[in-house]
Amino acid sequence: SAVISQKPSRDICQRGTSLTIQCQVDSQVTMMFWYRQQPGQSLTLIATANQGSEATYESGFVIDKFPISRPNLTFSTLTVSNLSPEDSSIYLCSVPTPASGTNEQFFGPGTRLTVL
Amino acid sequence: GDSVTQMEGPVTLSEEACLTINCTYTATGYPSLFWYVQYPGEGLQLLLKATKADDKGSNKGFEATYRKETTSFHLEKGSVQVSDSAVYFCALSHTGRRALTFGSGTRLQVQP
Q1: pLDDT per position as a tens digit, B86-109
Q2: Taking a contact as any Cβ pair under 8 Å apart, which residues of chain B between 24 and 83 contact chain A?
Q3: What is the C-alpha to C-alpha distance for residues A110 and A36, in angstroms, rounded to an integer?
Q4: Is B96 left (phi over 0), alpha (psi -120 to 50) or beta?
Q5: pLDDT band of A102, cuts 50, 70, 90
Q6: Distance, CA of B88 to CA of B44 (rounded, Å)
């Protein structure tokens, strides 16, 4: 299994500002995923972050709004820029199970963002 | 593209009642199928999984069978407990892509 931590666990931000979320994994992984869970909704994939290359964004998500860094195999950051109340969500990072052929994933505890 | 459809919630049951949460999917090929659970105030956890047709995943008394012919992966439990109250998500992924596609989630409330 993988142990994943996220910082901050929650934050309240003002409109127009930015928040950077950190995701730390206790083992080296090639792929990391960032998801958004809007209030009362399911999880939606934002992007896939691979070490050493640009993140791959899903339809509806753009790099200017959600820049991602992946400086090494155990760490990634997601920035949510130019915040609006619609960005209020839980943001989660996840990693695939090491050496698993089933694509099982471990999730971080999430970052709860509230935008005023 | 891929999609997962779950029954609407909330589902409210009395303790020891039988549970079925329906899940159907649309996908090319042979995806892996999962049920994840989110307990109140906690993170998302894998409950069970199945990787090929007719596989049965099981954990904590919950079961789900990968039905290729009906593209379904229904979650079942014979006798629910108050501690099973949570939101349950059905999900799928492909070997190459690896990211998960989630259903909308089903909230289960078990009353004593």
Answers
A1: 999 999 998 766 789 999 999 999
A2: 32, 34, 36, 42-46, 49, 51
A3: 9
A4: alpha
A5: low
A6: 9
